[in-house]
Write a structure and sequence with these properties.
Number of helices: 18
Shape: globular
Helix content: over 70%
Strand content: under 5%
Largest sheet: none
Mean pLDDT: 82
Radius of gyration: 21 Å
Distance between the termini: 43 Å
Length: 367
């Protein structure tokens, strides 16, 4: 019993170590800086115009999906970005569509899926992921309409309070100065540099190319801040980044640690016997397996190939591939902090239902 307990703890610590080693520096930290920049520098009216709850759905949802497609990060890296656009006034529906799409439609993972497992899986994965992102966003936006109205009212009141913070000669507070003073070219250049750091850092590019490119981009950041931004603007950006980091990072680490420990308890050998047939239970178990067994981006593909070789039915395999990149125990903990318990439960439940049903239907026709 004691040896098994040590094994469980070791499994959790190893998973945490692996995540810290391969994801934090090149993926998660740039994502926090981007989220901070969104909160500090982007004009709220730009976000609400295109992604707010009153924005036309035919604009808001395609934009959210396209942003997710272009970004294509893992389910943990997307969390600070989700928090950033949500804080700036994005509607819950479009924000969730972005939250779902970014990890689900990683173009490298889709191509990898096609080449390793089959292009029928790859096509089903990308089409269903985009569909689920929009449908789940629409459902949650509809179900929690009143809560969203209350949040919008609170946000408006906050902005009105900020506008009242004017000195005797009528100068606006620094937050409003930043919003009014930033020019479009500064923002585009600054965010382009931040996103380039994130995308290149998360890529599989060889270190002989990655390190020089990242070094140049990182040097470019303080130069931009020095030449084109005021000191208060920089302070505001760093402060918002720290707020996101403090709120999200500890929960993320706790979730990854617990997922690693559960991975030892629910071993692959113990689970595979339940996944050999295309049943509702088998598809649901495959989805839950994807939630609790945290795998970094792209790792789910060779794992799925291994499961297929061990006898997993194709329906549960697709259900696993649909769920694993999108939702994990760590991401659930963080999303709950951002949008509340009820909405998080509905979000997770909808993912489980949609992935289970899709796997079941796919398994009926798969050869």
């Amino acid at each position: 019993m004691f040896d098994f307990l040590i094994k469980i703890i070791s499994g959790g610590l190893y998973t945490l170590y692996d995540y810290l080693l391969h994801h934090v520096l090149t993926c998660l930290i740039p994502a926090f800086f981007i989220a901070g920049a969104m909160a500090a520098l982007l004009p709220k009216e730009k976000i609400t115009r295109y992604l707010g709850k009153d924005a036309p759905k035919y604009i808001a949802y395609p934009l959210s999906v396209i942003a997710g497609l272009l970004l294509a990060v893992c389910s943990c890296t997307v969390l600070p970005l989700f928090a950033g656009i949500k804080k700036k006034g994005a509607g819950i529906g479009p924000a969730i569509a972005f939250l779902y799409t970014a990890p689900a439609t990683n173009i490298l993972a889709i191509i990898f899926t096609g080449s390793v497992i089959g292009w029928d899986f790859a096509l089903a994965r990308i089409v269903l992921s985009i569909t689920f992102a929009i449908v789940i966003g629409l459902i949650i936006s509809k179900v929690f309409k009143e809560e969203e109205k209350a949040e919008e009212k609170e946000l408006v009141q906050k902005l009105l309070r900020e506008e009242e913070k004017m000195d005797g000669i009528g100068k606006l507070n620094i937050g409003q100065k930043i919003i009014n003073g930033l020019t479009r070219d500064r923002l585009i250049a600054f965010f382009a540099t931040l996103f380039a750091i994130l995308i290149i850092g998360a890529s599989k590019m060889g270190n002989q190319f990655k390190i020089p490119i990242l070094s140049g981009l990182i040097i470019l950041l303080p130069l931009q801040l020095k030449l084109r931004f005021e000191k208060e603007e920089t302070k505001n950006w760093l402060r918002e980044t720290y707020i996101f980091f403090k709120a999200i990072f500890p929960l993320l680490l706790a979730g990854i640690l617990v997922a690693g420990m559960l991975g030892v308890i629910f071993s692959k050998d113990a689970l595979k016997q339940y996944l050999g047939e295309n049943t509702i239970l088998a598809n649901l178990v495959a989805v839950l397996f994807g939630v609790f067994m945290y795998f970094p981006t792209l790792v789910e593909v060779p794992m799925a190939k291994m499961f297929l070789g061990l006898g997993m039915a194709k329906g549960p395999l697709l259900a696993y591939l649909l769920a694993d990149p999108v939702i994990s125990l760590a991401s659930i903990l963080v999303v709950r902090k951002i949008m509340g318990t009820k909405r998080t439960l509905v979000y997770a439940l909808l993912i489980a239902i949609f992935c289970t049903i899709s796997g079941l239907i796919y398994g009926l026709f798969a050869r």
